Amino acid sequence: MGKLRVPVTPYDHIKGPANAPVTLLEYGDYECPHCGAAHPIVNRVLEHFDSKLRFVFRHFPLTQVHLNAEAAAETAEFAGEHQLFWEMHDAIYENQDRLSPPLLFALARALGLSEVELRDALVNGRYAPKVKSDFFSGVRSGVNGTPAFFINGDQHMGTYAFDSLMPAIAQHLHARARV
Amino acid sequence: MSKVLPAGTVAPGFTLRVTPDQNLLLSDLASKPVALAFYPADWSPVCGDQMALYNEVLPEFHKHEAEVLGISADGAWRHQALAKSRRLHFPLLAGFRTRAVRDRSPRRDLLELPLADCRQSRRRWNPGCLGKNAETGGR
Known about the structure:
heterodimer; A: alpha+beta; five-stranded mixed β-sheet; 7 helices; about 15% strand; B: alpha/beta; three-stranded parallel β-sheet; globular; disordered C terminus
């Protein structure tokens, strides 16, 4: 079983309480259809565990296969700098079937972000180092496809179905409770 | 189960087709570390897609002045189609079942290993963008 080699830091995008006993971390690609399918399931899992679970998302774009994945990841980072990471993250996955550069700009506009600033950030690769660092942290942890999940640092070997993720998280929660 | 080769073991030399009209000699790359990635077949869901991951990590290999070579039993034309479709930026070598490779390999069983692994793992197919696999996970 794989272990998360690069621990969660404040530089990560974190949703949920800092003191949650369980952390679910996903390596994902905004153009990967399986990540798109996993997105509502992750939200359901987060709702199920409420304050006992926090969620971390790291980028793992397969840039040569998914031609919009890198720009999408950098756009999410751009939104993150304006404290709108999760809003952009959700918006991209919810519109994944029409993911394209114009869509990314439209989403930025809808969130009240500057399209000119986004364009400059993408052209200059302002967030490319962050996305790359996420990607290589995944490679070092043995991520070989997306979505890849880690629960409290242990790679989740099951599928991303609710019936697979939920019991795995519950198990970690119970293990914690017994200590 | 085959044993892992000890560090420093020298790979047997070979000449394999790299494009429909070019050959590659392993000795051409003798001055560099070379990662040989054996896989069973172009377009196979699990291991063929692994090539896409090596492709993404390629800058890291190049940073260390290392080369990556994919090797399978497919022909050069099929390799060309896969490389174009997946935008692969490293060579895929054809005809790994040729006598040249098999006869010179001190450990034929190792050459066979990726094939056996993939067959096994395909039984536990777990959909994901690179053929994420429940059984082999970190592979």
